[in-house]
Amino acid sequence: MNKTKNGGYAEAQRVAADPKGVDAGAHFMDGDHAIAEGGLAAGCRFFAGYPITPSTETAERFAERAPEVGALFIQMEDEIASIAALIGAAWGGQKVMTVTCGPGFSLMVENLGLAAMTETPMVIANVQRGGPSTGMPTLTAQQDMMQAKWGPHGDNAIIALCPDSPQECFDLTVEAFNLSEFYRVPVIILTDETVGHMHEKVVIPPADQIPVVPRNNYKGPKEDFRPYQFDCQGGHPMTQAGDGYRFHITGLTHNERGYPAATAEQNKILLTHLIEKINGNADQIIRLDEDQIEGAEVVVVSYGITSRIAVKAMQDARKEGIKVGSLRLITIWPFCEKRIEEISSQVKAIVVAELNYGQMVREVERSAAGRCKVISVNSCGGAVHDPQEILDAIRRAAQ
Amino acid sequence: MFFNNLKPLHGNVYVNETWCKGCGFCVQFCPTNVLDISPGYNAKGYHPPYAKTPERCHNCLYCQMICPEFAIFVKGDDECVKGETNQ
Amino acid sequence: MSTLNDIAQFKQVSPMSGILRMERMPHIWCPGCGIGSEVNSFAEAIRRSGIDQDKLTVISGIGCTGRVAGYSNFDSIHTTHGRAIPVATGMHLANPKLKVVVFSGEGDLSGIGGNHLIHAARRNMDMVVICNNNFTYGMTGGQVTPTTPGGAIASTTPYGNYEYPFSLPFLADAAGATYVARWTSVHARNVTQAIEEALARKGFSFIEIISPCTTLYLRRNRLGDGVDWLQYFQENTVIKHGCDTRETAIDYQGKIVIGKFVDKQKPTYLESVDKRYVQVVGDDYQLYGKTVPEREAEEKAEQERIAARRAAALAEPEAGA
Fold first, then answer.
1. Is the pLDDT of residue C119 over 50?
2. Among A210, A352, C8, C263, whose CB has the most other CB atoms within 10 angstroms?
């Protein structure tokens, strides 16, 4: 693990969650509701959103819980305004979140770029549905994987997490807030309609068992205040309006003081920082769920709901004697290049199952760099895979 | 007599010639025509204003308010107190 | 009279010191642009208002006027194009103790950001929106905007504008703004007074300031320079306080109705939230850990401090003759 001068993410200061937002106990709830509960548990007290199927339940849950928790929910006029309000509220001192799906996410990417540029912490859940355009509002897909990363124009880096169950929707939303606060970066929960609408048992631990990275506001002398530090690391303090530091933030290429400085040199410093604070610390950010990779001849790479379908295919394959391992991506972005690189030199083939026409498979192919076969099990979305499709691919891979 | 013998206020105009972009607002809209365009140029090639009749400045601050360059300000004379009369 | 060309000294003694980020001067606006004059009025209004300057936030969109946030020495955000109002909404709701001012242009606020403008007005969101209306998109080279008068030439209407323009006071009024005023940049005292009133009140305040864009709108329409247009403002504006905003349309080089058109009270967004949630949760309803009476007490104490600061500011001789 890289040790940075600010300490790494693992060593970041954590405190117990505010019990007000924690509805501790065992619940039977869907993924959308679990995302709202995760946000409240992590200390999010401001939610601006716009209704869109299949994500609306998160907004509804937050709106319902807001008065008792002392949080504020506002339904904005559109998704553009929703994420813009998050930027304002984050600099106003709150932890903030919103939820949407593809069409709304398309509107949000403008200010997702501003949030990445201004290093504004926020959590955005994208409960993916079939696309393009209006597509299939009530049916599942995983077609926004690349949009999450490359949606905003210009180079930037964000973090994206992919839960495969309502329980993980809760857990990863808390994790998303912690990452977002530490790295001062928008974090995207890339779930899908199936997980969003799937009811399962969700256990919310008591507040003192939920470690939360608190907002770290600058408290030092005014003359030393800088809204940014371009050192390719996380762990830098935020500031909040009203504390007297008179910050300026802009979407223009800026210096550490926050002032516009649109030169090639400054852009290099800024961009390197924005990208390397995430990619350079990928080891600390990335979480993977691995199973029986040691000695496997085939590894199935999957994420979200698809990983639960893949389990059945892998069980069947093992009955046939095929040594198959599983790599479930919990962190989508930054991508686990190194792990794929290692795996690719040990196995015959990697099978990538996903509910799109082939998105993350490109990343796997790039990282495997020809060291093994990469077989894509695509789907156009609308329904989850038939496990047989994945099993067939595993069989082909093992040959 | 000036408004019940009130002593007119007097101000001193300070011009930052470097920042002036020569729009002429201060010269045109000074209610007492204190300012005029100077024949000289600043580094940008504009003609900054100068106080042709400084004694006529009543410290109304209009030039300061209208100057888009924040290049003029007026300081009131300490000897002139608002509301003082000539008697 | 003196010239004060020692820049370091000028920056120190200028009345804009503390209000503007003097290290960023001189600014990028063209000779004869009206935005600088408006910023002077804004500064004077802030000084006179007595508000806590550490609690003032200036938020701008994109464009020439969008640069105001960057030059203002307050907590400030230069947002994406058109998004100043929703960012300000978030800022205000995250910390209701802040005074949030949006300072942007008419293309930003009523074109790309038009939806946000009407919805913030509809909600009576507590903020001051100052709209510099110069009838053109200046930063991109003089294109037609939603307020460009019919017939006026812009780079994208080279044969004259054939669209129907917005009258912004009418739009803001219809959408629910509780304070609506229009002045021009030559009406420095009135602009100051309007901003001062807006800073002192609660609710959505919309102040439109008609202003010259010498480089693009005036030059392209052969309307002379900044001085010519300020004279046009002096000669062709009609002050009609309380005027029905339906009568505030602007024709090309026609009369411009100015004044304070709307000034009324109704609960702000947050007041409505509080009222509703107290009904639901009871008197111990809290927002961000504070009950309504606690927040009201804080606000009352702040109002007293504002009154004291205001009295002190008005007693200073610089307050103007």
1. yes
2. A352
